[in-house]
Structures are given as C-alpha cells and as structure tokens.
Amino acid sequence: VRLALEEAGVEYVDVAREPEARGGGYPAIERVLKGGTPRPFAPPVLVAGDRAIAQTSLILQWLAPRHGLVQDGEAERTAAMQHQLTIADLVVEAHDTHHPIGAGKYYEEQKEAAALRAADFIEHRLPKFLGYFEAILTAGPSGWLIGDRLTYPDLSLFQTVCGLDHAFPRAMERLSKRIPRCRALVDRVAARPRIAGYLASPRRLDFNQQGIFRRYPELDLTP
Amino acid sequence: VRLALEEAGVEYVDVAREPEARGGGYPAIERVLKGGTPRPFAPPVLVAGDRAIAQTSLILQWLAPRHGLVQDGEAERTAAMQHQLTIADLVVEAHDTHHPIGAGKYYEEQKEAAALRAADFIEHRLPKFLGYFEAILTAGPSGWLIGDRLTYPDLSLFQTVCGLDHAFPRAMERLSKRIPRCRALVDRVAARPRIAGYLASPRRLDFNQQGIFRRYPELDLTP
Q: A100 and chain B: CB distance < 8 Å anywhere?
C-alpha cells in the first residue's frame, strides 16, 4: 500500500509510525480498528476522508483507479485484481513458512513445523508462483503484468520479490536464472523516480523480524 | 461461487463435474487453466462469454452487481468485498488446519503439525473470526452483514460456517451459543427458496475429504 501511495505521489500519514504525542502509535491503530463501516478485522486500514477500508488487496483496488495505477476498462481492472489476489496468496504462504502453527505463537514455538513448511515452500510453492508470473510476463511484450504500463500488481510483485530475497536469499539466488522477467520488473520498479526516492527515504520500512518476510537462515536452502 | 449463481438463478455448468464425454472433467479444467487473459493460477475459474476470471473473491465481486447480490453504491460494494476477503482469510486458515506443511502433501504426512495448528485455530482463530462477524451482525439491525438485504458475503459466511460445522462439529457446538446471529444468518440463507432447492439437489457437493473443509475427528475438540 505504501508503494502505491508513493508511486502515485499521494500524501499520507503512516499512523503506526507516528509518535503517540502526534496522535499516532498503538492508540491510533486501536482507534482505526474500532471505527469504520464495516469495522476492520485487522490492519492495514486506509482512512480516506470518511472512509476506512481494510484488506490490502481491496485498498489497492480502491486506490488504483483514483491515482493512475490501473488502466480504464473492466477487463484490465479485473486482470489487475486477479494478479493482486494471487500475489496475496503467495504472501500468506511466505508468512506461514515461519508461522505454520499459529500467528499468535512465537516462531521459537513452531520451529520444527516451520522447517518443514519452508522446505515445501522453497521446493514447490515458490517456483510455482514465481514461474507463473514469469509466464505472464513472457506472454506480454511490455515487461509489465498488464498492458503496456505499470499497474498496482507490479508494485505488489516488486514488494513480494524483495521480501522473498530478504527471507530466502539462497533459494531466490538459485531460482533467479529461471525468472529473468520477474527480476527485470523488480529493477524497473526500483528505478522509477518516486519509488527510488521512497526506497532511499526513512519512510521505507526495512524488512524485520516482526513482519511478513523474516530472515531465519535455518529456513532457507542449506548453503 | 455456486451459491451465488444459485441464489441469482443464473444457469451455469460446473465443468469439473461434467463427464469427459460431454466436454467436462479434468481435460476441461486444464483447458480453462491454459486459456484466459490473464491465465489463471488455479481453480476456481468463472468463464462468462469471452472472459475467464479466477480467484473466488474476484469472481463473486464480478458476479454480484450483475445479479443483484450487492447493493448499488461504492460504500456498499467496498464493504461487501472487505467482508468477502476476511471470510477468504478464514477459509485459508481452516484449510491449513489439515495441511499446515504443504498443500501438495498428504494429510497423513503432516498429522502432527495439523494437530497443533487445528488446536490453535479452534482456541484462537475460530472464535476471533466468528466473533468478529457476530459483532458486525450485532451492529446492524437487519440480520445481514450489509444493509437490509442479502449480499454475496452472506452466502460466503453461510458456506464457511457450514464447512466449519462439518470439519469441527464439537468446537462449533461449543462456540454456537456465543454466535447466535451467525447461526440465524445460516438458517436464513438455508431457507431462501433457491438456496433450499440447491441444497436439496444433486448439484450441491457434500463436504468431503478432498475439499477445504474436512472432518478429521482427531483435529476437533476432544469429546
């Protein structure tokens, strides 16, 4: 969601990172989670005017036509959301490599199952998902997922590949030569002026051990 | 998706259940998975005229305004998709109770992890999700998730609660008194004439051990 807002040049406040003294932090998150119609189940939530919209894919679908991140036309919009939801499935599976038993438990409580799930993910799911997107990029001539310019699922695929590079550097290195078009897309997104500015700014959150994409070397391919 | 088509009274063919001699079965699924723009990642796929749309939530979002399963108005449509995506998250977690390590492996290969994940699901996730929808239904006066009539996430919540009843009869029995409005919604959906006709027909697929919601008694609450 941050990448979409940055690429579109939209001003936004990431309330989770604002200090409590400036109305941010955990109290602000709690406030957002208690408001909205319907009330959100969980973050992230986009507050825009009197709307509060939850669910990452829906937030992106809502933002995109307002900010030039999807083409006009129903076929293009449907294609974009289809890709977005497939990427979201991949993201859930990437998360569950370190939390296969329960999101509310520590990684250390589920390390054995995590090792099994991560091995299955690296062997089967990661090549299947990224191979799928490689085929989509191969089928189209532009280097973007849809049509001839960037749409929001390109940003989501960028973020996901970056996260996977962080979490599974060895597995991704092995896979890289089979996904040259995904790699090229990542480079192209990173080079866009607003995205490049964002990535170099303190607004960009580093991947960390509280997020979706975490680096536990024991879950990666053995060297 | 079938419930939405049935409630709307739309004619459809479930190609997976058609005999190969009539152009159905696995070859038909393969054909659909190789066509479409973009090509789908996985079933289900809705083929409507020259469109092929994948991702359950997107199929429902696409069908709903065409068949009276969502109100007009952007706020209502956004609310409906937000609920749909939250229900989809619950469905993934319900599936992963029996496949926490890998969807391509047999249950028997991951029984130990499944027991742990199912216990966590029953203790934490199931009450959290269904408690959330109970609160949504409590906040509105109509007994439906949005506005004053049925929308497609009501059908999705119906199917999900039915599936959970099948998979975890003891856990759902224990939870039932805390979710009276979810229970009432299920009864109301089941009583709708077209849905009742469908549920009594051979078109309704029984829950089974190949689907998302499976009954493994050892994953349910102990008696």
A: yes
Q: Do B132 and A37 touch (CB under 8 A)?
A: no
SS (HEC) of A43-105: CCEEEECCEEEECHHHHHHHHHHHCCCCCCCHHHHHHHHHHHHHHHHHHHHHHHCCCCCCCCC
* Chain A CA closest to residue B109: A116
- What is the average per-residue pLDDT within A133-142? 95
pLDDT score for B36? 77
> How far is it, in rounded angstroms, from Cα B200 to Cα A180?
51
Is the peptide bond between B44 and the residue preceding it cis, with omega within 30 degrees of 0? yes
Question: With an 8 Å Cβ cutoff, is B184 touching chain A?
Answer: no
**ipTM reported for the complex, 2 dp:** 0.97
**Number of residues that this document lists for chain B:** 223
User: Can you point out the beta strands (E) in chain A?
Assistant: 45-48, 51-54
> In whole angstroms, what is the distance from residue A65 CA to residue A75 CA?
13
The predicted pLDDT at position A127 comes to: 98
Q: β-strand A45-48 against A51-54: which pairing, if any?
A: antiparallel
